[in-house]
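Z., the sequence and structure:
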Amino acid sequence: MTDAFKVKIKDRSLLERFPFPFQGDSYRYSNNSRALVPPVCIDVTPEYREEVLEKRRLLEQYPERTFRSFPHTLAAQWEIAGMLMHEMSHVYPRYFGLEKEGRLWTFQNKLIHEEHKFIFGESSTLPYEPLDFIGRHVQEDLIYLQQRDGDLYMDAGQLCFPANWSLAFDLGMTYLQFHSPVPIYSESGLAQKVLGFLLRMEAGKPWTRLNWTINVGDRLDTSPEEFGDWGKNKYLLHLGNVGQEVRLRTEDQRLFRLSGNNGILFSIHTHLLPLEMLVQNQVWAERFYKVLEDLPDPLAEYKGFISFKPLLLEYLQDHIGARK
């Protein structure tokens, strides 16, 4: 099978498996979390190899912004790494393997042909910190929120595919502090309510939610540190290329309470769907048009597409009208 043919198969299935984030014709911030069933933290999609290799490239090129941690998180990092290795080998046995002889563990990644032997709990036996190590084997970004003093603190994370936010800047902040830039969310009191919900989360009862924004191009790394490289692309859009260049960006966010360290693992799997593919689904195209039309300007500005929102609406309207 040629690489070109593989790409066509992947693209053809993308519309069917894409997590469309809108349940209605209007969008406002809400606690849209739902119980995660089955309770699985990661997914493996046809983009696995390219995304994992891209994560590793970014981690090597930009270590100061892609992985950060405080020393006191090491025990929680080991718990996360062990939890994910068990899940990966159980849910995807064709892709991953885990063998244990006491504290001597052997982790296998059959997709990229790697095997790692290490002593669980001894960091000197791994090439990276535990969270950074396991993060190099999954497509998801992994954030650790430590609970203490009745609050949640962003104390460790591997973040390679941010939607215009910075792990280096947010490290050590409380939940309300790192959400303070989000318009309406904090001042409405919703942020405080969601924090209370998270603080009451129980081990063994994970939750999930979908978040969304707009991407220009297929670049997953839209970090503020690299805005000079990707931000300018939004000003090159026109009606002739918006369908090809613009993507609906959905984040499948999952939350797991750790049983041993009482913190929360926050995983983020980012999916991109080109607008020209989205409009092939008439229901989605109409709903997306109504959501954008109704979206308050402060939200469109925060999500970074207010400058080309009229262009999006024009493109969607043209395709909706052509099918009626």
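DSSP finds 14 helices and ten strands in the chain. Confidence is low (pLDDT under 50) at residues 1-9.

Let me know what you think.
H.
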